[in-house]
Structure formats: C-alpha cells, structure tokens
Amino acid sequence: MLPVVRASGLRKTHPAAGGERVVALDDVDLAVLPGEISVITGPSGSGKSTLLQIVAGLDRPDAGTVHLGDVEITGLGDRRLAELRRRRMGFVFQSFNLIDSLSVRDNIVLPLELDGRTAAPDVLTRLVEELGIGDLLDRLPHQLSGGQQQRVAVARALLVDPDVLFADEPTGALDPDAAAQLADLLVALAHERGHAVVVVSHDPAVAARADRLHRMVAGRLYAVDPERV
Ligand SMILES: Nc1ncnc2c1ncn2[C@@H]1O[C@H](COP(=O)(O)OP(=O)(O)OP(=O)(O)O)[C@@H](O)[C@H]1O
C-alpha cells in the first residue's frame, strides 16, 4: 500500500543562544499508511513537534522531502501549501482550539466554509452521530467537558474528509477516562474509516494502541515494536 505521507532525510536546526544551532531533526524518515495509527513518543525537546510541523507543511525542513500522496509538499509555494492543508489534512491539538463565541455546529463547519464550501447536512449529521456529539451542536464550547470538546475538534478536522489526521498531544488536557475514549476514537478513525492518523503523544494509553510506534531521541526517529509497550 502506498504511504499517504512520506518523509525522507529530514533535517532541521533551530537558532539557539550564542549564534549556535540546535539540531531538532537529524536525518528522519517516516512513512504513514492509510488505515493505520502512527504514534510518535519521546522525551521533551527531542524534536517531535518539529517533525509534526514539517510533515504537516506548517514549517519547512533545511534538507529532505515530504510527500503527501504523489505531491512533494516541500516544493510547493505558501498559497498552494495552505490550500492542500485545508483540503487534505486535519489537525487536532492538545488545547482543542475551538472558538468560544461560536456554537459547536459553527466550529465544526468553519474550515469548510473558510474554503468557500458548505457542509452537506447528511454528512455533518452522520459524522457528529458517529462521534457521539450529535445532541451538542447548539451549545458553546465552554458548556462541554474536555472530552466532548476534543470530539468537536476531531469532527472539525474530519468534515473535510482529510487524507491524514495529525494530532499533537490530543489527550494532554483530558482525564484518564476521556483520554482512553479519545484513544479508542483515533484507532477507530484509522481502522474503520481508513484515515491515516499521526499522533504525537507522551500518553502510554495512546502509544499502546499504535499500529506503528516511533520514538524520537535527540532528533533521530527509531521504530519501536508496539507489542513491547
Ligand atoms: N522555534 C524554535 N526556535 C528555537 N529552538 C526551537 C524552536 N522549536 C523547537 N526548538 C528546539 O528544538 C528542539 C526540539 O524541539 P521540539 O519542540 O520539536 O521537541 P518536542 O519533542 O516536541 O518537545 P515537547 O515534548 O517538550 O513538546 C528543542 O531543543 C527545542 O528547544
């Protein structure tokens, strides 16, 4: 099966004190397959967020390439890259990033509307029912639990039917029960809906559910056998 996302030879340095550079990514390769959940763990400062930002086209590497399907995103201009991100990628963050003055429904449809499109009502209804938030559409985000807010963020990411869903510490702000439910949901999105799911997480409950588990140490990415977590 062809990877949805393929990164090869990624290298990235960031500026550090005294004119030095810190190596955040050191020759990193990554292949993400449809229908699989890939989890990236590793200590703080090891380069996980830098890797996610680059494979998601939010930052550019110093060297190496990233392909989304057969498009090399590292070769695209900013406008084309932004369009590709809007249409083919979904994002979920630790802090939910919902707009508190908008209803749940308006939050979910916002990315599609910003892209000049409208949500088909039956698609929206089916999605929110699947995510168990169908009766919350008229509420405001602050009227929901953390777990419910994160499901809204997942619905917002999925409404565009992305090729790949990126999640950066998605259970970081949730209690253990809500975190376990969100891990179940991410697995189901990969296994039942066929999305490619890429998660950066410190959470052992998420790592234990990975089809492919990677550990980042000092800018290098290592494959780990998920059975051994
Ligand atoms: N914008 C930046 N400017 C300078 N240095 C940066 C920048 N972003 C990251 N770094 C440095 O690059 C290295 C990798 O950081 P990164 O945020 O990718 O790690 P991480 O594994 O995601 O950490 P955490 O788990 O704490 O979020 C660290 O040494 C960090 O201090």
From TrEMBL:
Organism expressing this protein natively: Nocardioides humi
Pfam families, alphabetized: ABC_tran
Gene3D superfamilies: P-loop containing nucleotide triphosphate hydrolases (3.40.50.300)
UniProt entry tagged with the keyword ATP-binding: yes
InterPro entries with a match to the protein in the record: AAA+_ATPase (IPR003593), ABC_transporter-like_ATP-bd (IPR003439), ABC_transporter-like_CS (IPR017871), ABC_transpr_LolD-like (IPR015854), MacB-like_ATP-bd (IPR017911), P-loop_NTPase (IPR027417)
Gene Ontology molecular functions: ATP binding
SMART domains according to UniProt: AAA
Nucleotide-binding among keywords: yes
CDD domains in alphabetical order: ABC_MJ0796_LolCDE_FtsE
Domain of life, per lineage: Bacteria
Transmembrane segments: none
Name of the protein in question: ABC transporter ATP-binding protein
PROSITE patterns xrefs: ABC_TRANSPORTER_1 (PS00211), ABC_TRANSPORTER_2 (PS50893)
Residue ranges of every copy of the ABC transporter domain listed in the record: 5-229
Keywords for the protein's UniProt record, in alphabetical order: ATP-binding, Nucleotide-binding, Transport
